[in-house]
Design goal:
The protein is an all-alpha fold. The protein is built from three helices and no strands. Among the domains are: about 100 residues; about 40 residues, no CATH class.
């Protein structure tokens, strides 16, 4: 096997100086875009709903950028930790295959039941609603430094994709709700300006 090149990270610091990514909850905090000292209350319901929709978009963009930063920082921490371990132990030989036990674990994970919603129907994993995926077990084989780093990086990527997809779905639901409220309010005002015989009957 040819010698392996040393692991390198794109930032020069210690892995101990980067906190592990244990929760994505802090991503909800984004800087204010309006000066609260000069903020004026929307003049009517339509203006207020439009402002809410604008705020949802700004919050969405800010949280998404925070999430991407947190995933990138965790990636750099894992690479640095592996680099530091290799500097102490030297470059280790990389296994060329998987064990029978690992193959069996993969099959068990593929056969595991997906998480369920309250009424028992099969649902999607959604960490933004506090759901927990059931039946999945991450294999813990006897890995070298490089193999463990790769496995951890893959896990960060997979969880990051799930978190981003769940966040997009969560935000879209909120945006849709306020868009419908805005459309109903516009229709209500249009109907209010018509003569009784011109108004759309709803009964």
């Amino acid at each position: 096997m040819p010698p392996q090149p040393p692991l390198t990270a794109t930032i020069t610091t210690s892995s101990q100086s980067i906190p592990p990514l244990n929760s994505i909850a802090p991503s909800i905090f984004v800087p204010l875009t309006d000066d609260i000292s000069t903020f004026s209350t929307p003049r009517d319901r339509i203006a207020r709903l439009k402002h809410i929709l604008q705020t949802i978009d700004l919050q969405h963009d800010g949280v998404k950028q925070n999430l991407l930063y947190m995933f990138e920082r965790e990636k750099q921490r894992l690479i640095l930790a592996a680099q530091e371990a290799e500097e102490k132990m030297g470059v280790q030989r990389v296994r060329e295959g998987v064990t029978r036990e690992e193959e069996d674990e993969v099959v068990r994970n593929m056969e595991a039941r997906p998480s369920k919603k309250e009424k028992g129907e099969v649902g999607e994993y959604d960490p933004w609603k506090g759901e927990q995926q059931q039946g999945f077990v991450v294999p813990q084989p006897d890995m070298g430094v490089r193999e463990r780093a790769v496995a951890d990086l893959i896990n960060v990527i997979e969880r990051g994709v799930l978190d981003l997809q769940a966040f997009e779905k969560y935000t879209e639901g909120i945006r849709t709700k306020y868009l419908e409220l805005l459309e109903r309010e516009v229709v209500r005002l249009e109907e209010a300006g018509k003569r009784p015989e011109e108004r759309t009957r709803t009964d």
